[in-house]
Design goal:
This protein is an alpha+beta fold. It has one domain: Bira Bifunctional Protein, Domain 2 (BirA Bifunctional Protein, domain 2, 2-Layer Sandwich). It is about 25% helix and about 25% strand. Strands 1-2-3-7-6-5-4 form a 7-stranded mixed beta sheet, with helices on both faces. A 3-stranded antiparallel beta sheet has the order 8-9-10. Helix 3 crosses helix 4 and helix 3 packs across helix 5. The longest helix is centred in the C-terminal third of the chain and has 22 residues. It starts with about 25 loop residues before the first strand and ends with a strand. The N terminus is likely disordered.
Length: about 260
């Protein structure tokens, strides 16, 4: 990711004036029935880095951004962590005081323990692990409004921004905020190395007593607990294969 988003095609103009994205992002808007992640993966080879696909939904902030890393796929997947840092920073910008915005490794986002959504990562199926992939796509969904089952006791493990005191922060605000914070995360990576992104990411995982965590060059998570000889390893590629937060039937975060 040394060159960040790289060049952006100028032919992709914003199709939704109410969403203001910083350079070098280019907006592609889909109808409510669209799938931002799938569409971004489909157009990534032609659209290029910085293309951000947005789906206008009332109950979800749904978007996906195309990246063009310059390092081998094996290490380039760590861009997922930059995306998750940006996603949680976007939420923190609108969160009420004392609200905990946390990450469940690797991909789930929770507010005060309630699942609101998460991130996912895509890359070409034919990509060589030892070569830079033609593209990566980081996609995200955040539940902004809880539809039906208004009694929180019916689904105590789920949450939505409107119920958590985020005020008027909806899909547009989350998308704009994410774009700004993604640029900051990538800039931090370029200037201070990936360790700076890893520290930010790991700081958002709820702490466990006497537990140390680190992320290696492949993006795998290592966990060591005081008093134990063994170090646990969690494989990033395996974890990304099936997003933990996504309900395929609902087409959104689990409830």
């Amino acid at each position: 990711m040394e060159e960040g988003l790289r060049s952006i095609p100028t032919s992709l103009a914003s199709t939704a004036e109410q969403i203001q994205l910083p350079p070098p992002f280019a907006l592609v808007r889909l109808r409510e029935s669209g799938d931002a992640f799938a569409h971004a993966c489909c157009i990534a080879p032609e659209s290029g880095a910085g293309t951000l696909v947005y789906v206008g939904r009332f109950d979800l902030a749904e978007f996906a951004v195309v990246l063009e890393p310059t390092e081998p796929l094996t290490t380039a997947r760590r861009a997922f962590y930059a995306g998750m840092v940006a996603l949680t920073d976007a939420l923190r910008a609108y969160a009420p005081p004392a609200k905990e915005v946390a990450i469940g490794w690797p991909d789930a986002v929770r507010i005060d323990g309630g699942l609101v959504g998460g991130g996912r990562l895509g890359w070409p199926a034919s990509a060589d692990e030892d070569e830079p992939p033609g593209w990566l796509v980081f996609g995200a969904m955040i539940r902004t409004v809880m539809m039906n089952d208004r009694d929180p006791g019916v689904r105590p493990l789920a949450a939505a921004l409107d119920e958590e005191g985020f005020g008027e922060a909806g899909a547009v605000q989350m998308t704009e905020s994410f774009a700004r914070h993604l640029m900051r995360a990538i800039d931090s990576w370029q200037v201070d190395g990936f360790d700076s992104v890893a520290r930010e990411y790991l700081s958002r995982i709820p702490r466990e007593p006497q537990t140390l965590r680190r992320i290696d060059d492949r993006g795998d998570l290592f966990t060591r607990r005081t008093g134990r000889d063994a170090t646990e390893r969690a494989n990033l590629v395996d974890a990304l294969a099936s997003p933990s937060w996504l309900d395929p039937t609902l087409g959104g975060p689990r409830r």
